[in-house]
Amino acid sequence: MRGFRRAESSLSLFRRHGVNLKRMVGSHMVCPVCGKRTVGKIGGHHYYCRECCHVIQKQGDQIKVYEISEDGKLTFLRTAG
């Protein structure tokens, strides 16, 4: 019973901060660079692949791929789709 209460309090913490768990878990976007499903949403139309460390921007039918440089800036690589 204790483990269930802890999980329940974690869920309420997520809800209190406005995190939509269905949106986080439900995204099954495939990375256009490496083809893995390790992509998570980081912003409005921005995604991040944990496998190849690229940022993906999706706007309509167009997908832009960016690389994160050492100083934290995004460098445009290519357009896919």
What would you note in describing this structure?
By secondary structure, the chain is of the alpha+beta class. The protein has one domain. It is built from 2 helices and 5 strands. Strands 1-2-3-4-5 form a 5-stranded antiparallel sheet, with no helix packed on it. A hairpin with a 5-residue loop joins strand 4 and strand 5. The longest helix has 15 residues. It starts with a helix and ends with a strand. The N terminus is likely disordered.
Annotate the secondary structure layout.
Layout: H1 2-16, H2 21-26, E1 39-41, E2 46-49, E3 54-59, E4 62-68, E5 74-80
Antiparallel strand pairs: 1-2, 2-3, 3-4, 4-5
List keywords for this structure.
81 residues, alpha+beta, 26% helix, disordered N terminus
Spatial shape? globular
Strand tally is 5
**Helix share of residues?**
25-40%
The residue ranges in which pLDDT falls below 50 over 5 or more consecutive positions are 1-11, 17-26
Radius of gyration: 16 Å
* Residue fraction in strands: 25-35%
Placed side by side, the strands forming the largest sheet appear as 1-2-3-4-5
Q: Could you say how many structural domains there are in total?
A: 1
Average per-residue pLDDT, rounded, comes to 75
How far do the termini sit from each other? 49 Å
Query: H/E series, N to C?
Result: HHEEEEE
Helix/strand-derived class? Answer: alpha+beta
Major beta sheet, specifics? 5 strands, antiparallel
Number of helices: 2
